[in-house]
Specification:
Elements: E1 3-4, H1 6-17, E2 29-35, E3 44-45, E4 54-55, E5 59-62, E6 67-71, E7 75-76, E8 86-94, E9 102-114, E10 121-122, E11 128-131
Antiparallel strand pairs: 1-9, 2-3, 2-4, 2-8, 5-6, 6-11, 7-10, 8-9
């Protein structure tokens, strides 16, 4: 992820530096975007044509300086059905399959056009969240 969302930054700072109670996410979902979200949200998430966010599955944390968190298994979206999704340029991680809070977002290294019948796959180890 290239940036944590405002929500995730607030959650992290409260958890680390206050005695406030915080509710930590227990599930994580990848959302696909055709226009860039920002730290406050926004952007254009894909909708329709059989699109749904996909669970990240197990994430593994390793290393120091940088510390990296990555997907342990492949993430596969259902095939676009009944229409095109367009050019996917960004991804975001959410704490819910619908609505919920965006935790972080990033620009894809390579944009991907998803047409009717196409499937987008994120291989194991390719969804990286890095802190330096």
């Amino acid at each position: 992820m290239s940036s944590f969302s405002d929500y995730a930054e607030n959650l992290t700072l409260k958890y680390l530096f206050t005695t406030d109670s915080v509710t930590r996410p227990t599930a994580w979902y990848v959302g696909l975007f055709t226009a860039a979200p920002n730290d406050a949200g926004g952007g254009t998430e894909v909708s329709g044509s059989a699109y749904v966010r996909k669970a990240t599955g197990t994430m593994a944390v390793s290393g120091t300086s940088p510390t990296n968190c990555t997907n342990s298994a492949a993430i596969e979206f259902d095939a676009a059905s009944g229409g095109n999704w367009g050019v996917i340029t960004h991804v975001a991680i959410f704490d819910a399959a619908t609505s919920g809070n965006m935790l972080g977002h990033a620009t894809l290294t390579t944009s991907r056009t998803i047409s009717d019948g196409d499937i987008l796959r994120v291989p194991a180890g390719d969804l990286d969240i890095t802190l330096t």
